[in-house]
Amino acid sequence: MPKHIGLDLGTSNTRMYIKGRGIVLRSPTVVAVDTQEDTVVALGSEAKRMIGKTPFNITAFRPIQNGVIADFEVSAMMIHEYFVRTEALSLFNRPVVLVSTPGKCTEVERLALENAIFEAGAKAVGMVKSPLACAIGAGLKINSARGCMVVDIGGGMTQATVISSGGIVTSKAIKLAGDKLDGAIINSLRSKRGLFIGDVSAEMIKVKIGAAMPGMNRGTVEVSGRNEQLKCAQSIHVSTADIYNAIHTALEAICRTIMNVLEITPPEIASDISDYGIMLVGGGANISGISELIQKKTGLRVTIAKNPMDCECNGIGKLIEKPNIIPGGILYKNR
């Protein structure tokens, strides 16, 4: 019997669900490639630790960008390796895979993702839109006539989606999420403090002391980098206020996207959302004060889902167990 797998290929992290076992894999979506030998040197956490520290012939990068394939061959190799590591793929059994795609994904992007999974060894591939998977994983009743809104702040993209009667009513996505927040921190420290740091350090600072509301104090953290003026290594202390000042403009843009979706939502559904509020999922939901900021800007109650980073994968898993949660079920393509 083939194993049934749920796959959440995020820009920052990959998660895998196996029917009967739950989520069996949580790994950074990073691959280190030897460009001379054209081989994969490392992937996941090991590859992430290599970012910014590799020799000239090795490149560590993310083969998935905004939920779609950026490098076909490397993505296929990465997915195949994860199949092998989780024992989902064997000589006699090829897995049946359900994968999530961004709400607004082109046919070319869908085809590239599908082909990469087949190349990795899948027997059949089905697809579900990520906002629906997120809503299901967060426990929202998507088949109800009562409208709901889910906001997914991921690594490469923020999606604000209104759902009713088992389908997407309106949605908007912007390429502004965790990665852009990291970039804002890098640019702020470089311009204001003269210190150049890497992506991994910026993410660490954001997680440890990042805040979405002014006046919050989550302490300070020491960060090391290269002093742009002295051209040497230097360590400085960074405060919560420093990080808020760096990222608040980007967070304001995320709030505007949410409000834009609310403005084009049909009145009856808008009334439902007013009553029941907004569900927040994705890694960005863990930024301290983010729910309070969105609530202040929209005037609506904001709830952070339980285990927000796992919501999408959990939703895919629920669809594997009960595909009829979505009207018409899931269509799989065989190869």
Task: Explain the overall architecture.
With 335 residues, the protein is an alpha+beta fold. The protein contains ten helices and 19 strands. It has three domains: 152 residues, Nucleotidyltransferase, domain 5, CATH 3.30.420; 98 residues, ATPase, nucleotide binding domain (Nucleotidyltransferase, domain 5), CATH 3.30.420; 50 residues, Actin, Chain A, domain 4. A six-stranded mixed sheet has the order 3-2-1-9-10-19, sandwiched between helices. α2 crosses α3, α4 crosses α10 and α5 packs across α6.
Draw up the topology in text.
Layout lengths: L3 E6 L3 E6 L3 E7 L2 E4 L4 E5 L1 H5 L8 E4 L2 E2 L2 E2 L2 H14 L10 E6 L5 H13 L4 E6 H8 L10 E6 L4 E7 L2 E8 L3 H15 L2 E2 L2 H11 L10 E8 L4 E8 H24 L3 H10 L1 E4 L8 H9 L3 E3 L6 H11 L10 E3 L1
Helix pairs in contact: 2-3, 4-10, 5-6, 5-7, 7-9
